[in-house]
């Protein structure tokens, strides 16, 4: 593999000069041109950068802005669903149709990770009783099926969160080699959720493993919440939802380690780079307290975590954790 992929999270107290800047997921402010959850902690701004060596030039095509180096392709697509004919369902179809066309044009067969941000995700549009997230799921799955991409087993890792405003915003990371999809034995696969959660299931795997060069393997952990089987547990109790979420995170990490090319202890929960989405800003102290109890106050995962304010895609979920971990064959983790 010619160009290794690097991940870096830059905090406000660090130098803002990010070398080889490719794709930034700004989490410091709520910019108006994209939908982005607001940063709750630490004091912003935080910039997430997935980068490759060398300088890349951003290109634009339709709804997409993207960069690529031949090995990796990253970008963001935005469509304002409020003005798009057919609303959020049609906008989701259009965004994913354009994404898949872009991947075909650029010769990238595989989506590794997708971040979906939808304004008012638990709301409904005038004249349509179906929740906006459920509408989004229809358009997304239709696009996967139309493009003959894995809408079920082998779907990419993803998250879907609600913002207060902004156009439908989809960030993606694609590569040339198929990732290995990871499921959670404690949960029904999201793409097999029964129809009580909407006419079409969400299109994502619980995690994805990908070789990213330099003998390293990335685990992309999808948005993970207090769901066991297909049901939400601990409705109204953010502390217990956080604990259940961590149990699910641990289960996905275990399942990933069983598939890892690096080894059976390659990925560790306490070493993940976590993004924690909190529905109510007032719950932040309690969520942080539970994470500190469960991960250990000195865990790198706790030190590196960022907390964002977002609506979680089921109205009864109060917290969701997404993460990535990078394991290296050169530096095996201690037993
Ligand atoms: C869940 O487990 C919580 O629709 O892409 C998590 C990750 C969730 C991704 C998505 C939704 C999505 O069902 C919600």
Helix content: 10-25%
Distance between the termini: 28 Å
> What is the string of SSEs from the N terminus onward?
EEEEEEEHEHEEEEEEEHEHHEEE
Strand fraction equals: 25-35%
User: Radius of gyration in whole Å, from Cα?
Assistant: 18 Å
Which segments are poorly predicted (pLDDT under 50) over 5 or more consecutive residues? 15-23
Give every kind of bound small molecule, once each. 3-(2-carboxyethyl)benzoic acid
| Content-based structural category | alpha+beta
Q: What is the mean predicted local confidence, pLDDT?
A: 90
Name the strands of the widest sheet in spatial order.
Answer: 3-17-16-19-13-12-11
Shape: globular
Provide a descriptive summary of the structure in words.
The protein is of the alpha+beta class. Helix content is 22%, strand content 31%. The chain is built from five helices and 19 strands. The chain has helices at 87-106, 132-146, 238-259, 284-295, 300-304, and strands spanning 6-10, 23-26, 38-41, 47-51, 59-61, 64-68, 72-79, 110-119, 157-163, 168-175, 180-182, 207-213, 216-224, 227-228, 231-232, 273-278, 306-309, 311-312, 319-328. Strands 3-17-16-19-13-12-11 form a seven-stranded mixed β-sheet. Strands 5-6-7-10-8-9-18 form a seven-stranded mixed β-sheet, with helices on one face. The chain has a three-stranded antiparallel β-sheet with strand order 1-4-2, with no helix packed on it. Helix 1 runs parallel beside helix 2. The chain is globular. The model is unreliable at 15-23 (pLDDT under 50). The chain binds 3-(2-carboxyethyl)benzoic acid. 3-(2-carboxyethyl)benzoic acid is lined by residues 116, 158-160, 190, 202, 204, 222-223, 225, 227, 313.
